[in-house]
Amino acid sequence: MRVVIDRSLCIGAGMCVLGAPGVFDQDPEEGLVEPVGGDAPDPGNPAVRRAVDTCPSGAVALVP
Ligand code: SF4
User: Fold this and answer.
1) Ligand 1 probe mutation, 32, 33, 36, 54, most atoms within 8 A of CB
2) Where are the alpha helices (DSSP H) in the chain?
3) 35 DSSP 8-state letter
4) C-alpha 39: how far from chain center
5) 21: which of 31, 41, 47, 64 is 20 to 30 A away, CA to CA?
6) Which structural domain range is residue 55 located in?
7) Total count of domains within the chain
8) What does the alpha-carbon distance between residue 13 and residue 10 come to, in Å, rounded to a whole number?
9) Over the stretch 17-40, which tens digit does the pLDDT of each residue have?
10) Could you tell me which residues come within 8 angstroms of residue 61 by beta carbon, excluding any fewer than 6 positions away?
11) The domain spanning residue 30 has which CATH number?
12) What's the predicted TM-score (pTM) here?
C-alpha cells in the first residue's frame, strides 16, 4: 500500500493535519494539503491511516 495525495481534490478541511500533524501540513496560501518535508507518508503509520479515514474529500488515500 502507498499513500497518494491529490491536491486537486483537497478542500482544505485540515482533518489530515489534526490526525497526523507531523506528516501532513497545509500550504499557507491556499490551505491545501502537502506532505511535511516532502516525504511520502508511511502507509503503516496509524496516524496516517487516521488522516486518510477522516479526510472528507479523498484527497489523501491509500492505494495498493
Ligand atoms: S487532504 Fe483532506 S483532510 Fe487534508 S486538508 Fe485536504 S480535504 Fe482536508
Assistant:
1) 33
2) 15-19, 46-54
3) E
4) 11
5) 64
6) 2-63
7) 1
8) 8
9) 999 999 999 999 999 999 998 888
10) 3, 4, 6, 52, 55
11) 3.30.70.20
12) 0.91
The three-point CA angle 57-59-11 to 5° equals 55
- Separation CA 25–CA 19 (nearest Å): 11
5 lines ligand 1 (CB under 6 A): no
Note the pLDDT of residue 3.
Answer: 96
Which three three-digit cell numbers place residue 15? 482533518
Share of the chain above pLDDT 90, in %: 94
Measure 18 CA to ligand 1 centroid, in angstroms.
10
Q: If you ran DSSP here, which 8-state letter would residue 20 be given? A: -
pLDDT band for position 15 (cuts 50, 70, 90) = very high
Q: Which residue has the cell 499513500?
A: 3
Select from 51, 52, 16, 57 the least CA-distant residue to 33: 16
